[in-house]
Design goal:
The complex is a heterodimer of chains A (369) and B (209).
Chain A lengths: L1 H6 L3 H28 L2 H14 L15 E6 L7 H4 L5 E5 L7 H22 L11 H4 L8 E10 L13 H7 L9 H6 L12 H11 L5 H8 L5 E11 L2 H8 L9 E5 L1 H14 L6 H21 L7 E7 L10 H5 L2 E10 L2 H7 L2 E3 L3
Parallel strand pairs in A: 1-2, 1-3, 3-8
Antiparallel strand pairs in A: 3-4, 4-7, 5-6, 6-7
Helix pairs in contact in A: 9-13, 10-13, 11-13, 12-13
Chain B lengths: L1 H58 L5 E7 L4 E6 L14 E7 L11 E2 L6 H4 L4 H13 L4 E5 L2 E11 L6 E6 L2 E2 L4 E8 L3 E12 L2
Parallel strand pairs in B: 6-10
Antiparallel strand pairs in B: 1-9, 2-3, 2-8, 3-5, 4-7, 6-7, 9-10
Classes of the chains: A alpha/beta (369), B alpha+beta (209).
């Protein structure tokens, strides 16, 4: 009788245990909220990117990317707070700089630093472009065309209290090449390339691109775009773009004739180069053919796509580009063929915050604005 | 013997029950996430877009304007209603309001620019063949997926642009009393006047069907 009692769990005990488990789960959820709430927006975004990259590609669309666009205002007068750019928007990071002539160099360096950090943060948050995060079942099955997907990681605006003419001297490229990433021994360029030995980057034949651009002026609409692009844009978006292809090697061979088209490597290009890749993505919209078709169409689109960034000083930041196989959830029985299907290109690029320019790069945009 | 067997059965079952419960919670969580993203994520994005517009309206002072890119969601539209409109969703009660409404699956005429004049009065806007469009938009906003917010000022909300007649090639100024959102960016312009707020979108050039 005694033994029976000892071995038996009464219904009350079972209910208590179940309640205890539910309580434990509830506490876990609350702790998670508090824990995640304590995380920076970047870490929350990074976690959501990792979560998405590790679920089967067909289910990725159901895992939200919790990446919120960082809004950074560089101002010489904190009462202004980029009113013309961020007026009415919330969660703006205000960075005070000096608008006095004697502090010009320091202000320029600060703008370069903020832009470089924004680009680097975007690149690292998104898994350095190596994670496959925009897969869709419909695209995988060939029911929909391949198109580009983006996350706008951050918007950096320079307030009118900072003299506009100073922005001509902002050189993000040089900053990336010479300055060390905070807390590391690598320059931004080396960090992007994941290679300590690199001190330079691939250059694009700018003249060739200009000539191509001139050829395009006869097309209506392109010339208008150019006129608007020549003015200094005081707001830049750092955009992460990714596109998947079955034959990314073909794209590289044709589009990056100026580059060493080695799959699985990361490289940095000046705006025209990145535009070449991103313009291909735009051209892919509505195209059902293979990548050879896209490359031909993309060639022309590259010129108009890259032109805004070509003229606007801030847009001259380097683009970190990764093309090659993605690291993601591998399906059972993964073989060489399925590996090929997980290739693609990822780019982080500074783009003028203009809806036409961003739509040029991105077919769809994810994350929170 | 019987006792020890009983003890084993009970303990084994309890542990199994606990593991099953935890497994069930995980599965429920995953299903919940999928269902949320399948049915509610678009509405959340659309609401976020509406919130941004409302914040801009609140922020602007009389006589000021703002032009800004906005990310929306495919299949949804902004629609503005005035309190004196004859056709309007009940959700707006007795106020002027701006709504974001799921218009996916509506008649394809919705989203196509129609000849007219941007900023025309409510009476003009609902005349003739536009009545059907207004009715459709009202229904889209009235259903459970429409989200409306009251605005103090009168609302003039429209897309404007040009329509090129496919057969004759002639172009005509046109407007449509709603703004189509997309997964990409659109540009909105908000102009705040003394007694009205204009929410405009340049829809560019479209070809008539």
């Amino acid at each position: 009788m005694v033994l029976k009692k000892r071995g038996q769990l009464s219904s009350t005990q079972i209910i208590l245990m179940v309640l205890a488990i539910f309580g434990f789960v509830a506490v876990l959820v609350i702790m998670g909220k508090i824990f995640l709430g304590g995380h920076s927006k970047n870490e929350v975004c990074r976690l959501s990117v990792l979560t998405r990259a590790t679920v089967p590609s067909s289910a990725q669309g159901y895992v939200p990317l919790k990446c919120t666009t960082d809004k950074i205002c560089i101002t010489a007068d904190t009462s202004q707070q980029c009113r013309d750019k961020f007026g009415g928007e919330k969660d703006i990071t205000i960075i005070k700089v000096s608008g006095k002539d004697k502090d010009k160099a320091a202000t320029i360096k600060k703008i370069e630093e903020i832009s470089a950090n924004a680009m680097y943060d975007c690149w690292s948050m998104m898994g350095q472009g190596k994670l496959d995060i925009f897969s869709k079942l419909s695209t995988e099955l060939g029911l929909k065309d391949v198109h580009s997907s983006c996350v706008i990681c951050s918007r950096v605006a320079v307030d009118k209290t900072v003299p506009e003419i100073w922005l001509n001297e902002v050189d993000i490229n040089e900053y990336l090449k010479k300055q060390l990433v905070p807390g590391t021994k690598y320059t931004y360029t080396q960090a992007f390339l994941n290679d300590k030995s690199v001190s330079s980057y691939i250059k694009v034949d700018e003249t060739a691109l200009s000539e191509k651009a001139t050829d395009q002026t006869s097309n209506s609409g392109v010339a208008v775009e150019r006129r608007t692009a020549t003015k200094i844009n005081k707001e830049v978006a750092f955009v992460f773009m990714q596109i998947k292809s079955k034959n990314v090697g073909d794209v590289l061979k044709n589009q990056f004739n100026f580059a060493v088209a080695a799959l699985g490597t990361t490289y940095l290009t000046l705006p025209g180069g990145a535009a070449a890749i991103t313009a291909v993505t735009k051209a892919a919209v509505g195209t059902i053919g293979g990548w050879w078709t896209l490359v031909v169409v993309g060639g022309a689109a590259a010129v108009s796509g890259g032109y805004g960034a070509y003229n606007a000083k801030q847009g001259q930041a380097l683009s970190a580009t990764y093309c090659g196989p993605f690291t993601s959830q591998q399906v059972a029985g993964d073989n060489e063929k399925t590996r090929d299907e997980r290739e693609g290109c990822s780019v982080v690029k500074a783009v003028n915050y203009d809806f036409r320019e961003i739509n040029n790069y991105c077919y769809s945009i994810e994350g929170n604005p | 013997m019987i006792t020890s067997s009983r003890r084993g059965i009970i303990m084994g079952n309890t542990l199994g029950l606990l593991v099953a419960l935890l497994g069930l919670l995980v599965i429920l969580g995953a299903i919940g996430t999928i269902v949320y993203n399948l049915y509610f994520a678009d509405a959340a994005k659309a609401k976020k877009a509406l919130d941004i517009v409302m914040d801009k309206i609140d922020y602007l002072k009389e006589g000021e304007s703002a032009k800004f890119p906005l990310r929306g969601v495919d299949g949804w539209m902004f629609v503005g209603w005035n309190k004196d409109d004859l056709i309007r969703p009940d959700k707006c009660f007795l106020s002027n309001c701006v709504c974001v409404c799921k218009t996916d699956g509506l008649n394809t005429r919705v989203g196509v620019l129609r000849p007219g004049q941007a900023g025309s009065s409510a009476e003009d806007r609902i005349e003739s063949d536009k009545i059907k469009t207004q009715e459709e938009l009202k229904d889209a906003c009235q259903n459970k997926e429409g989200i409306c917010k009251a605005v103090k000022e009168g609302v003039i909300l429209s897309s404007y642009g040009k329509v090129i007649d496919r057969t004759t090639g002639s172009s005509q100024d046109a407007y449509f009393p709603a703004i189509k959102l997309s997964n990409g960016l659109i540009e909105l312009e908000i102009i705040k006047g003394k007694s009205s707020v204009q929410i405009l979108n340049d829809a560019g050039v479209q070809t008539s069907s």
